[in-house]
Design goal:
Order of helices and strands: HEHEHEHEHHEHEHEHEH
Number of domains: 2
CATH superfamily of the largest domain: Nitrogenase molybdenum iron protein domain
Oligomer: single chain
Helix content: 40-55%
Radius of gyration: 20 Å
Structural class: alpha/beta
CATH architecture of the largest domain: 3-Layer(aba) Sandwich
C-alpha cells in the first residue's frame, strides 16, 4: 500500500512564487541599464554579440555556434532546475538589452513573459524549429501546463540539429559581419548532432525492451524518435506530485511491461522514483535530460547524451 512519498523537490524553492515588490527606483534603474546596453557590441560585451539563453541547452548552442563572436549569459544558474526559474529585475533588463535571446517556450514561464515584453524581434524559440508532441497530462497534484505541447524538444539530438540551424540563422541575422563564421560553425555542429543521432538509432535498433520509466515526461521526443515508450511518473512539470494511487498503478505497469529500471534524474530528487522502484522490485539508474550541467563538470550536451545511450542500452537489453 503506497503512502505519499517525501517531498521530491529536494529543498527547491516553491514553484511560481510571486516576484517581490520592487521599488520604483529599482525598476527605473533596470530600464536605464537596458537602454544603455542595447545592440551588438553593447556595453560590457567587449564588442561581441550579446546572447541571453534561458538555460543550458540553448546556451550551449550559442557558444558552440557563436564562438568568440558572442558573449553568452545564461539565466539559469549551473546545476539549478530550469523549470523553477524566477527572473530578477536585472535579468529582465538583460533580456531587453540582448542582441538575441534563445529560449524554449513552455519550459520557463518567466522567460516567456520577459521575451514577449522585452525581446520581440530579437529572440528565437527552439520549439518553432521542430514538430512538437502533445503534452502528457497525468492529472496529478501540482501539475500545470503553459502549453498544449511537450516543450522538451532538445532531448532528441535529431531535433536538436534543426534547432541548431535556427540558432545559426538568427546569429547571422543579428551579427551579419560574422555570418559566414556562424554558418561554418553551425554546419560542423549539425554534423556532430547527426552523428549522435546515428549512434542512438544504431544503439537502440534492436532492444528486448522498449519501455522507459522516467521521473517526469522529459524524454518524449527521444522515445518518439527511437521507437521507445516513455512511462513518466510526473508529467511535463517535474514538480507535480503523483498520488499513492498513481504510484500503485505505475508499479503494476512496470511489472507488466517487464521493465528492469526506473530512471531518476540529475536535477530532481530521486525519492519518488526510488519508492516506485522498491515497490516494483526493480533497480534505478540516472538518465539525464540535459537541462543543466553542474558546476565544475567537464560534460557538455553531447557527452551527457552519449552517457544516456550507454545507460539505456543495458537497461533495455539492446544487442
Amino acid at each position: 500500500m503506497f503512502t505519499k512519498p517525501a517531498d521530491r523537490r529536494a529543498s527547491r524553492p516553491a514553484r511560481r512564487r510571486a516576484l517581490p515588490l520592487v521599488p520604483l527606483t529599482a525598476v527605473a534603474l533596470a530600464g536605464t541599464l537596458g537602454l544603455t546596453a542595447c545592440g551588438s557590441g553593447s556595453a560590457g560585451s567587449g564588442g561581441r554579440t550579446k546572447v541571453v539563453a534561458g538555460f543550458y541547452p540553448m546556451a550551449w548552442l550559442a557558444q558552440k555556434i557563436g564562438g568568440d563572436h558572442v558573449k553568452v549569459q545564461t539565466l539559469t544558474k549551473p546545476g539549478a532546475e530550469p523549470h523553477d526559474l524566477e527572473l530578477t529585475p536585472r535579468q529582465i533588463a538583460d533580456v531587453g538589452s540582448a542582441d538575441l535571446t534563445l529560449y524554449v517556450k513552455g519550459v520557463q514561464p518567466a522567460v516567456d513573459d520577459a521575451v514577449a515584453k522585452r525581446a520581440k524581434g530579437k529572440s528565437f524559440d527552439a520549439v518553432s524549429a521542430v514538430k512538437t508532441l502533445p503534452a502528457r497530462d497525468l492529472g496529478e497534484e501540482g501539475e500545470g501546463h503553459h502549453t498544449d505541447y511537450d516543450p522538451h524538444v532538445w532531448v532528441d539530438p535529431g531535433r536538436m540539429a534543426a534547432i541548431a540551424k535556427g540558432v545559426g540563422d538568427h546569429l547571422a541575422k543579428a551579427d551579419s559581419r560574422n555570418a559566414a563564421d556562424y554558418r561554418t560553425r553551425t554546419d560542423a555542429l549539425v554534423k556532430q548532432l547527426n552523428d549522435l543521432d546515428t549512434a542512438f538509432q544504431t544503439g537502440l535498433k534492436t532492444c528486448k525492451r522498449k519501455t522507459v520509466v522516467t521521473s517526469h515526461a522529459a524524454f518524449g521526443y527521444l522515445a518518439d524518435h527511437y521507437g521507445l515508450t516513455q512511462v513518466p511518473i510526473a508529467g511535463v512539470d517535474p514538480n507535480a506530485e503523483p498520488s499513492p494511487k498513481r504510484l500503485a498503478q505505475l508499479a503494476d505497469e512496470v511489472r507488466k511491461t517487464g521493465a528492469t529500471t526506473v530512471f531518476t534524474e540529475t536535477l530532481v530528487s530521486p525519492k519518488v522514483a526510488q519508492t516506485l522502484a522498491r515497490e516494483a522490485g526493480v533497480k534505478t539508474a540516472v538518465l539525464d535530460p540535459v537541462e543543466g550541467v553542474k558546476p565544475g563538470s567537464s560534460d557538455d550536451y553531447l557527452s551527457v547524451l552519449r552517457r544516456d545511450l550507454d545507460i539505456l542500452r543495458p537497461a533495455l537489453e539492446c544487442s
